[in-house]
């Protein structure tokens, strides 16, 4: 008897969608009509319900729409509804500057995550100084946390241009307050911020008067050039505010420091420290290698590497000058719990470490390190002990994905609720995974490899397993590991454009089961004496 075969027609689904769309355009077998402003479009309930939870609930509930032949939709334009229906039938949609925000609203209404993703991609790829603030406001309103974070950081890093755009004058007061509260802010000096703030206040004096004092309080007036202070002091807009007393105090302080101090070095030191603590206009990435095993011991030590280092070091700069000189370097403290195979995720200036193995037992402890505070802080432990889990931030929340536990590989996913300092279980993966990779792209969390899964890239110079991996300056770095015979301290970086690996500076310590992450360090201008 010949064996059974299972046949799969590769273009069947495409033909099915294509033919369903033809039927829809002809109005054949359609069983419901959607109406917007007296304009109609006929559709098939089953097709809409198959892809949209919104329509699935509408057509399969006690709602009156479930029994009606015509359904009136509000809060959506007919041309946007047409685009959405065409997408449902064809999987294609055109996103432009004119329709992207309307499509975002429709995607949220009909719960179409694919359209939400493509809108986020479009906005993130078209960010510029004239639209980043509106993108931030819209994304924050719709709880697109990753897009909002990206747009906000773009605004901070390009604020010298943003402040001269028309959009700046329309920025809400709370957004401007958040911007002026940030240490990362790329402008020549505080005078630029003060002049921009005055222009913003004058654009709508009546409604913005109440915000004047709170916004000006976020400026360091001692760093405003004297001519700017004097011109603002005589501005009629500011004549009856607390601002005048602050200006007078700033002028007195500046004159005192400039002319009454007999020690120029003391004045210079004071000026530098004041400037450093307040603003910086750029950042530099720093790679961290965390934990691992060496010589039969679980490690809690951390090494770092960045541009300007000729070797890996156990000290990290708090600040980097534009000329590359490192300022206020500090020894990186060891983790509170030595570990290998932990899950690691980074967020701006912080690196989070969860779980792992200490050569005697699995761990559930969680801690994070901040470049700014230079301390490890303990968080609530994971509900389970894990090694080889993945970690990533999605929409501002820390996710721990899979891993190897006491009973084998996991498919559970945990979310850290920062406000409540607790862990909540999320939707699990479809596959049990451990020692895998995770990545977030436009709010979607991907789990890759692990449990025997592989993918092809260019060959490294030496075979290695159980290594740390991170991305810095658009290159993939692989650190340490094991080559089948020896523990390694060698480091290689991968160029995705050439598909080639290059050897770079080796770590101080051979590390097996090491993990890695990339954080940011402020870059400042050196003040002339």
Automatic annotation (TrEMBL):
GO terms for molecular function: actin binding. SMART domains: BACK, BTB, Kelch. The keyword Transport does not apply. PROSITE patterns: BTB. Pfam families: BACK, BTB, Kelch_1. InterPro entries: BACK, BTB/POZ_dom, Gal_Oxase/kelch_b-propeller, Kelch-typ_b-propeller, Kelch_1, SKP1/BTB/POZ_sf. Residues 30-97 form the BTB domain. This is BTB domain-containing protein. It comes from Timema bartmani.
């Amino acid at each position: 008897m010949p064996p059974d075969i299972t046949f799969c027609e590769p273009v069947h689904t495409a033909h099915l969608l294509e033919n369903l769309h033809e039927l829809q355009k002809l109005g054949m077998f359609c069983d419901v009509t959607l109406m917007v402003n007296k304009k109609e479009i006929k559709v098939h309930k089953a097709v809409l319900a198959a892809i949209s939870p919104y329509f699935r609930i509408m057509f399969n509930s006690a709602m009156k729409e479930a029994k009606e032949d015509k359904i009136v939709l509000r809060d959506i334009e007919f041309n946007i509804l047409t685009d959405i229906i065409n997408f449902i039938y064809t999987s294609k949609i055109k996103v432009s500057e004119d329709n992207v925000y309307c499509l975002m609203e429709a995607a949220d209404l009909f719960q179409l995550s694919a359209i939400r993703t493509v809108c986020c991609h479009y906005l993130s790829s078209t960010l510029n100084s004239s639209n980043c603030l509106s993108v931030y406001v819209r994304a924050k309103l719709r709880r697109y946390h990753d897009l909002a974070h990206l747009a906000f950081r773009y605004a901070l890093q390009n604020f010298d241009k943003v402040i001269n755009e028309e959009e700046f004058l329309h920025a809400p007061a709370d957004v401007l307050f958040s911007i002026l509260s940030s240490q990362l802010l790329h402008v020549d000096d505080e005078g630029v911020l003060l002049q921009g703030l005055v222009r913003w206040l004058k654009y709508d004096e009546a409604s913005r008067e109440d915000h004047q004092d709170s916004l000006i309080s976020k400026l360091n007036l001692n760093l405003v050039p004297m001519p700017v202070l004097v011109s603002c002091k005589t501005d009629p807009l500011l004549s009856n505010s607390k601002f005048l007393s602050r200006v007078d105090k700033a002028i007195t302080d500046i004159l005192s420091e400039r002319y009454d101090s007999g020690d120029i070095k003391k004045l210079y030191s004071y000026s530098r420290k004041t400037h450093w603590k307040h603003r910086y206009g750029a950042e530099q990435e720093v790679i961290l290698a965390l934990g691992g095993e060496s010589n039969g011991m679980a490690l809690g030590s951390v090494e770092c590497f960045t541009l300007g280092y000729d070797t890996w070091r156990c000290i990290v700069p708090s600040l980097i000058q534009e000329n590359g000189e490192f300022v206020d370097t500090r020894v990186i403290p060891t983790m509170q719990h030595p570990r290998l195979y932990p899950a690691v995720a980074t967020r701006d200036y912080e690196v989070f470490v969860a779980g792992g193995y200490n050569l005697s037992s699995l761990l559930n402890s969680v801690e994070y390190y901040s470049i700014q505070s230079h301390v490890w802080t303990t968080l609530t432990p994971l509900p389970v002990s894990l090694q080889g889990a993945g970690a990533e931030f999605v929409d501002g929340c820390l996710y721990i994905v899979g891993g190897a536990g006491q009973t084998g590989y996991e498919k559970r996913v945990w979310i850290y609720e920062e406000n409540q300092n607790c862990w909540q279980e999320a939707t699990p993966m479809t596959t049990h995974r451990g020692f895998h990779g995770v990545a977030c792209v436009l709010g979607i969390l991907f789990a890759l490899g692990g449990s025997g899964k592989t993918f092809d890239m260019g060959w490294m110079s030496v075979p290695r397993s159980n290594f740390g991996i991170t991305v810095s300056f658009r290159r993939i770095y692989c650190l340490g590991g094991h080559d089948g015979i020896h523990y390694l301290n060698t480091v290689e970086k991968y160029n995705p454009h050439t598909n080639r690996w290059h050897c770079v500076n080796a770590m101080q310590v051979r590390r097996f089961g090491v993990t890695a992450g990339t954080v940011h360090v402020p870059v400042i201008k050196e003040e002339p004496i």
